[in-house]
Structure formats: structure tokens, C-alpha cells
Amino acid sequence: MGVLRGLRAVLDYIYRLSEILAALCMIAILALILLQMLARWSSEVFPGAPEYAAYFMAAASFLGFAAALNRGSHIRVSLLLNAVGPGMKRYVDIWCFAVSAAVVWYFCWHARQFVFWSWKFNDVSQAQDKTALWIPQSVMVIGGVILAIALTDHLLHLIFKGEHRIQHDNVETQEV
């Protein structure tokens, strides 16, 4: 069981780190907006600021997905889960986590290929900044992989322990 505790600690650390990085991306967006405002007031030009803000927004979104899942902030299938009985709820939950994990792993596989080809062809943004696109795309893949790991983690925990690890589930159960 020591190995599993160590793995749990590593996974929780990865989820927390991605959450912190997502927050730092949001702070970077704020800094870019403020710098762009200062540049306008001083009649200077800050080329590429909107593009970098968009890159940081995508990074914040993808890096924050796993943390949002772990805190119960994702929209889940609560209508369906509330409509079925307690015995069936577990199987529907397993099915939902399995399908979600499969879809996200599929996305990660193809997004990884997309990043590779952007790097291979030296694809750059068409804006003034000329950023190599594989850099912001890589953050998208990293965030996607962390989400896929989190979904798989919840799925396995649900199968073997009988409950997922979402800290605050917004699904209300009906008392019969």
C-alpha cells in the first residue's frame, strides 16, 4: 500500500501544481492587460499582447480542468444521475467517467500529433509576435493529459473503492 500512497501523493501534487500554474496564467493575463493599457497611455505599441493573452487563457483553461474536476466544478450529468436509483447510479457514473476519459485520451493523442507537426513545419502565428505555435499548443496537451489522468484516476477509484474522489459533488441525491 506504500506504493499506492506514494502514487496518490504524486497525483495530488500534479493536480495542485496544474491549478497553481492555471492561476499564474490568469495573473499573466492581468499583467498583459495592464501593460497594454500603460503602452496605450504612453503612445507606445505592445505588439502581440492580445495573442499572448489568448495563449495564456488557453493555458489557464487546460491547466485548470483537472483541478475543476477534483473540486466538482465541471458540469456533470446530474440530471441523469438523479433520475436513476442508487444501485444504477454507480454504473452510470462509471460509464460517464470511462467515456470521458476515453474522449480526453483520444484528444490528447491527436493534439500531441498536432503539436509535433507544428514543430516539424516550424509553424508560427500570423500575428506580429511570430510565436512558434508548438509552444502554446504544448501547454494545451499537458493540461489535457493531466485531465485525462484525473478522469482515469477517478474512474479507477470509483471501480475499486466504490466512490470517486471529487471533493464537492454538486449532484443532489433524492431521498426516497
From the spread of the alpha carbons, the general shape counts as: elongated
Nearest-integer average pLDDT: 88
The share of residues in helices is: over 70%
Name the quaternary structure. Answer: single chain
**C-alpha termini separation:** 38 Å
How many distinct beta strands?
0
- SSE succession: HHHHH
Radius of gyration: 20 Å
Strand content: under 5%
The total tally of domains equals 1
User: Which structural category do the helix and sheet elements fall into?
Assistant: mainly alpha
Largest sheet: none
Uncertain spans: none
Helix count from the secondary structure assignment: 5
Protein name: TRAP transporter small permease protein
Family: Belongs to the TRAP transporter small permease family.
Subunit structure: The complex comprises the extracytoplasmic solute receptor protein and the two transmembrane proteins.
GO biological process, one term: C4-dicarboxylate transport
Protein architecture, described:
The structure is a single chain. The chain is mainly alpha-helical. The chain has one domain. It is 74% helix and 0% strand. It is built from five helices and no strands. It has helices spanning 2-41, 49-70, 78-83, 86-120, 134-161. Helix 1 packs antiparallel against helix 5 and helix 2 runs parallel beside helix 5 (134-161). The radius of gyration is 20 Å and the shape is elongated. The protein starts with a helix and ends in a 15-residue tail after the last helix.
